[in-house]
Specification:
Alpha-Beta Plaits, Beta-Lactamase, 3 domains, single chain, 12 helices, five-stranded antiparallel beta sheet, alpha+beta, eight-stranded mixed beta sheet
């Protein structure tokens, strides 16, 4: 097999030059990686024939030729006209020609672009989610990033709203530093209860928080996860109050509603957040606003999904702002 044909069967890019820096060979893999044609670059100086790569590595090639030593694992990032951002790893070795003082080089090119793009995607997912979903869910997403659809998808979710009751009155009686310290202790307990059930912390809103279940990771039992998170929040708050004076004891009102929503990155191009939009989001918020301190309220449709698994008390009909008809409301008391 001729040398040119051998080069064509190598999956790495191969480029060779002579002592005058003229390209002698360039195999098919190098054509594909660099988006060039061999007949267009062969016989031309590599710095001109490869305008993105050549100038970037010219000092390195001169060092290889001068020292007569190879360089391995050199990485370079280029922006190629037809490929965009491209990441390459180069191994450059000296090639002695017939003349003792005439040295060309062999350049072996590994295309790292897909690998680097995947690494960046993983890093973006980690940065975007590690602060508000449990580490276990983050790792599951990173093991299969295709399961995460940023940009919006319709799916069933359970929405969880918790709001601190009477915080305005509390804040008027204490210094701002005390307000924040006490509020953070209470919000931390709610956040921990949500993350324990692999829920997603959507946002903190002053003295309230929003969370959702079954997004971005699928959870067939998402309604029960939300219920357990709510019960565990209230239990944790009760235990905290055993350690606090009455003046620093705050209580949550919690609302939960399950149903379809659009979930994804919502906002502007430059500033957006992973959140949910839908009627059940509004319902969960209204239920939370209707809840008394220490109460967990759900609507009738949510209750029908889990009535065999919970102890609940029907509160009757409630009229919510923006809703033309009243809704049956249930208070969750415990698990069966």
């Amino acid at each position: 097999m001729k040398l040119d044909h051998l080069f064509d069967h190598i999956t790495n890019g191969v480029i060779t030059t002579d002592g005058q820096d003229i390209i002698v060979t360039l195999n098919r893999a190098a054509e594909r990686i660099l988006m060039v044609q061999e007949n267009e670059v062969k016989g031309h100086p590599y710095t001109k024939a490869l305008p993105q790569l050549g100038p970037a590595i010219a000092p390195l090639i001169e060092t290889v030729k001068r020292r007569d030593e190879k360089v391995t694992g050199y990485e370079v990032e280029l922006k190629l006209p037809q490929r965009g951002q491209t990441f390459l790893r180069l191994n450059i070795s000296p090639l002695k020609n017939n003349h003792p003082n005439s040295t060309g080089v062999a350049i072996i090119v590994d295309d790292l672009t897909e690998q680097r793009q995947l690494a960046r995607q993983v890093q973006q997912v980690r940065r975007a989610f590690e602060r508000y979903i449990s580490p276990r869910v983050v790792e599951q997403l990173l093991s299969d990033p295709s399961r995460l659809r940023l940009g919006g998808e319709r799916r069933e979710v359970s929405i969880f709203f918790a709001d601190v009751r009477n915080f305005v009155a509390f804040s008027e009686a204490v210094e701002p530093e005390v307000q924040i310290a006490v509020l953070n202790r209470h919000l931390t307990l709610a956040a921990e209860a949500i993350l324990k059930e692999d829920g997603t912390l959507d946002k903190f809103m002053g003295d309230a928080l929003m969370a959702m279940f079954n997004a971005p990771h699928e959870q067939p039992d998402h309604v029960m996860r939300a219920i357990r998170a709510a019960l565990n929040t209230q239990h944790a708050i009760a235990q905290l109050h055993d350690q606090l004076p009455p003046a620093k004891q705050l209580n949550f009102g919690i609302g939960i509603a399950a149903g379809p929503a659009i979930v994804g990155n919502i906002g502007a191009d430059t500033v957006h957040s992973y959140t949910a939009v839908g009627d059940n989001v509004n319902m969960a918020y209204r239920l939370q606003a209707h809840a008394q301190p220490g109460q967990i309220l759900i609507d009738a449709l949510t209750y029908e999904r889990i009535e065999e698994h919970v102890v609940a008390h029907e509160q009757g009909l409630a009229h919510f702002k923006g809703h033309s008809v009243p809704h049956r409301v249930f208070e969750i008391l415990d698990l069966r």
